[in-house]
Amino acid sequence: FFFFQAEDGIRDPLWSRGLGDVYKRQTQSTWDSLNILMKAIARTIAGPGSPMFVNIPIPKATPKHVIIKVLASPINPSDAFFSKGGNFGPIAYEPFVSGFEGAGVITEVGEGVPPSMVGKKVTVWPAVQKSPDSIGMWSQYARVPFDACVMLGDSDNCEEFCGLFVNPLTLLAFIDLAHKMGVKAIVHTAAASALGRSLVKVGIAHGIEVICIIRKPEQVKILNDLGAKYVLNMTEPSFVEQLRALTTKLDARLAFDAIAGDFSKQIVKGMPPNSIIYSYGILSGSPRKIEDIVEEMKKENKEVRGFTVFQHPIMQDPETKKKALELISEDVKKGGPWFKMTIARKYKLEEYQVALEEFKKTATEGKSIFIPNPQKTYSKSIQKKKKKKKKK
Where are the alpha helices (DSSP H) in the chain? Predict the structure, then answer.
């Protein structure tokens, strides 16, 4: 017998966890002694659909796993895509808890994990060490492999360090691809995003200039202040000509596009011969559209490829992954100069519908995050405070 309890109290015979890979059902014995429920956001159907707010039993630690009281979990585009029915791999059972990464405090350890870890702050990405026992981070209590945790300091803010995997590993993969291609400059769209800003800083440290593509004039200063030398506005009439001239000058034959849709054509046209354009997002809301410029691409030997960090050696090769995680850990110890996040908005789990609708709108301000165990009531935006009216 398997169950989860929906917000309206209806029990469903199919309850599982899930973080984008193959997951099995939980045996009833795991839950037999549990009476306490926790809040979570779960996906409920295999195809396109909507996530839902549910109440499910607080999990117990299994061997080599820990239970984390989740204090913060970011809302990434991949999270939104997955929670609404998109798949990154085969899914065995549904519904399951969403949330790819987060940070919090270890409250319980399983066999094989030192008991001294209880009470330690950690940031975690369960996909680093895939397990059928994992429970997603959009919940009050998550269960994850201990090997997927990176230790935080006692004084570190879990909110600022709750997104140390999806974006950092992605941009480190970008830098690796640039080195392998032998280029000293790359093109990046949606460059004022949290990932884009970190890419500028990491690129400088690795000798890679980033040609930043933005769409709002005020975003130019944000990137210039981080050290970006080249910022182009995609809304300007001469954008393609400017991009072509700059990529040719800098021999920037590598691009990473998060927008897709019709904009894909502009990026392709703005790249020099022998270029590779990696498409890793669909912020436009539609897949890349390049069918009518295929012949042009062939003439200049240009190629458009899909990209996901899961297929890169940074996730596939144990030694490469180990080095990347060590780099992230060192950044934490230094206070997060590369990867510490700026928070734009905070949401309770119950506010998931509004959160998933609004998180893209504030990407330039910083990350939107869930606070599964709020100590106080959060408004939708921490940037805007209501002015108190004086009583007469």
Answer: 77-83, 166-181, 194-205, 219-226, 239-250, 263-270, 294-299, 313-316, 318-333, 352-358
CA distances from 178 to 71, 147, 170, 272, 295 (A): 35, 29, 13, 15, 26
How far apart (Å, rounded) are the C-alpha atoms in residues 335 and 344? 19
Q: What is the pLDDT of residues 100-144, one digit of tens each?
A: 899 999 999 999 999 999 999 999 988 778 888 889 999 999 999
Q: Are strands 343-347 and 367-370 parallel, antiparallel or unpaired?
A: parallel
331's enclosing H/E stretch is helix 318-333
Two tokens, residue 78: 């991949």
Per DSSP, the three-state class of 57 is strand
CA distance 5 to 69: 20
The continuous run of DSSP H or E covering 309 comes out as: none
Q: How far is CA 256 from CA 240, 279, 333, 354, in A?
A: 16, 6, 29, 29
What single-letter DSSP state applies at residue 216?
S
CB 320 within 8 A of CB 295: no
d(CA 38, CA 42): 12
Residue with tokens 């890979």: 21
- What six digits make up the tokens of 210? 């980033």
| Residue spans of alpha helices (H) in 334-363 | 352-358
Helices (H), 88-142: none
Residue of 32, 47, 44, 33 lying closest to 7 (CA atoms): 44
Compute the distance between CA of residue 344 and CA of residue 363 in angstroms, rounded to an integer: 8
Collapsed DSSP state (helix, strand, coil) of residue 337: coil
Q: Which of 382, 376, 348 is closest to 362 using CA atoms?
A: 382
% of the chain surpassing 90 pLDDT: 56
Q: pLDDT value at position 315?
A: 87
Select from 24, 53, 28, 27 the least CA-distant residue to 39. Answer: 53
